[in-house]
Amino acid sequence: MLTGIVKFIMCAEIIFLIQNIEYVASASDILKQKGMFSELGEKWFDDDWMNFRRITVTDENGKPSEISSLKDFVEYRGGDTSLVVPKRTAGKKKTGKDSDE
Hints:
38% helix, elongated, two-stranded antiparallel ribbon, 6% strand, nuclease, mainly alpha, Restrct_endonuc_II_EcoRV, hydrolase, endonuclease
């Protein structure tokens, strides 16, 4: 049986994933603990969750933009971007006039 804190953490992760849908890989990856944060760890998950789309940087032309990708966030914080697990998505088969066949 799951303890209260474990249930809370799982709910928090689900809420985070819903709010930040671009981070969602596949449900099976998350259940297998192979999501985008699996190599980074909980510290990175918490930091990104609390700061998602709240950090603005200025590009070389002076234009401000929000950090909205995990890789950019980890780079901004000085972390190892090689630990970001790429999002694995299920490909959709093209049909009809949009098909490459």
